[in-house]
Amino acid sequence: MKILVKLFLLVFVLGTLSCKESFVNVDNPTAISTASYPATVADLEQLLLGAYATQHAPSLYGHNMLAKNTYLWDHTTDLSWQGTTTWIQLAQNNSQPNDSFLQGTWQDLWRGVQRCNTLLAGIETFNAKANAADVASANLIKGQTLYLRAWYYFYLTTLWGESFIVDGQGGDKMGVPLITKTSTSLPETQVARSTVKQCWDFIVTDLKAAETLLKGKSWAGATDKYKIGEWGVKAFLGKVYVYTQDWTNAKTYLSDVVTNSGKSLAPFETYKTMFNGQNEFNSESLVELNLNVDMTYRGTDDRSMGSSIGMVIAPTYVGPNGAQAASAWSNVFPHAKNIARFGFNLGHYFPTGTATANVANVDKSYITRSMAARTNKTVDPRLWVSCLQPYVDSMIVSGVKKPISHYLDISEIDMEAWSFRKYIYLNGAEGEVNMANGDNILWLRLADVYLLYAETLTHSGDNATALEYVNKVRRRAYGYAVNTPSAVDYKSLTDQTSAPDNVLKNDPLKYERWAEMFGEGHWWFDVCRWKIGDKEAAYYQRVRGGAIQWDATDYAQPIPINEITSNVSIKQNPGY
């Protein structure tokens, strides 16, 4: 093989030498020179926009997140679509190194890192010859860029790091390569994996530097609200410290956000619609990925301002013949075991023995019981924030209200085949917004911080205050005043929850994190850092494509095969 490669290179060199000079001249006269760009703060802002926009690149929050990675590993979803083998394998916790979804996410995260590195280099060059006012503006851009680089490394580390740090162990395991400048040659791309601890330390260093540069900064302008400010950085740092079990620093940062950020839990009426393009940048939002409906480019296109997550998780509705109709691709639906976890045990919308999924066959008493459960809140109200209930809830299609149906292509007539509600377009089908909807991603919000803070307090022996912060989140869900004891309060951190399973039924902290943020892409990382993957697999048991296959190495995803073959210094994760 080496001889063949050498022969090929020799033929290539001889061929190029025999060509005319005009053919081998690769200078691009229209290219932007780094000697003259970036030359202004406006140039830096332009590069910053690209660094932000990569967060919703096609393989990140433009499409693959969430239904083609975290939703599958933590069994938020089951699969209606059965035509993609690797998709089914992801849902079985049987990821493969050749999976194209994983390859895309890996590449887009590294593209985000590269864009941040390029911008940071440009800022240093710019600052060396800029006036004081422009340096101050450039340093605000630098703070945001460091935050963004930490954001991309956060996902690289949590998805591909060999282990989380648990009880002081795992820090010496393989993380990901740490690259701080844009490569200019092939050897510079051959970087070995740093340790997990080195990766987390790097993330913390970037965030601490961002915290200093963005101290006191918030962005109130209509066109700047998406930018990261001081409190978003501090909240992210608090989350990172929880993820690394640095409880002392976690308490310091999370307490600061809770006490001094000015944020508050939004009322339930705001909460239930804030994932659907309404009430954006509200009182509890700390970090929000800004999206807009894009009628020119779908979310699967790099140029899109929107996201096509909704395309994949789109609801199905009752069509003209009374059967299921897709509102977009409609590939995945909430795993049936999730409906029970919210405390729903009111029977099924089709009576036993029903042969056809049709609106005419619905049990009318089921609808009555379901509406009573909502009114009386005998089922966790967050079920209906997260999901759309067949034959009870509706959606708008071309301006006409249509009942939600038994999910598309689900042959099991008795399956709880509901639809998703978070991050879908409520005022029409996804096709009506070009499958590029503008629902902002509430990536980090105060309810998350409250629960992380509660978890942190349990590690300092303050269970009473921890319980209070768990109850604050629960009260909002049931429509009670957040800061006043209520009838739905947990009495202890081992009180009974709505869940029927051994993982969550007597663990209010874990249950509240699961229920409050269901469908937001956080649960998988909780599963990993708590090391409960085996227990979760035992609860969910199977997806429609087959049994879940849990191994101890499944907490880390396989390094994509393309990276293994192109980077001789990188090693694969165990188990793949």
Automatic annotation (TrEMBL):
InterPro entries: SusD-like_N (IPR033985), SusD_RagB_dom (IPR012944), TPR-like_helical_dom_sf (IPR011990). The keyword Membrane applies. Residues 42-241 form the SusD-like N-terminal domain. The keyword Membrane applies. One of its GO terms (cellular component) is cell outer membrane. SUPFAM superfamilies: TPR-like. It holds the Pfam family SusD-like_3. It is found in: Cell outer membrane. Keywords: Cell outer membrane, Membrane, Signal. Residues 294-576 form the RagB/SusD domain. Belongs to the SusD family. This is Carbohydrate-binding protein SusD.
